[in-house]
Amino acid sequence: MKENEPRKDEDHNSNSWVGYLGLGSQLAITVVIMVLLGVWLDKKFATEPVLTIIFSFIGIAGGMYNFIKTTLKSDK
Does the pTM of the predicted model rise above 0.85? Predict the structure, then answer.
C-alpha cells in the first residue's frame, strides 16, 4: 500500500457519518411542512386548530419513521 493512499476501512469510517448529516434537518423540514399545510387547510375550511394538530402529528410520525428506518438500515 502506498503512503498517501487511505486504507479501505478508514475511508469507510470517515464517510459513514455523512449520511446522518441531513437526517435532523429532514425531520424538521417534514414537521414544518406538515404544520404549514395544516394551518393553510384550517384557514381554508375554518376548522382551526383541528387540522393543524392532526397534520403536526402526521409530520412527526412520518419524520420519525423515516429517521428510524434510515438509521436502522445504515447499521446493517
Answer: no
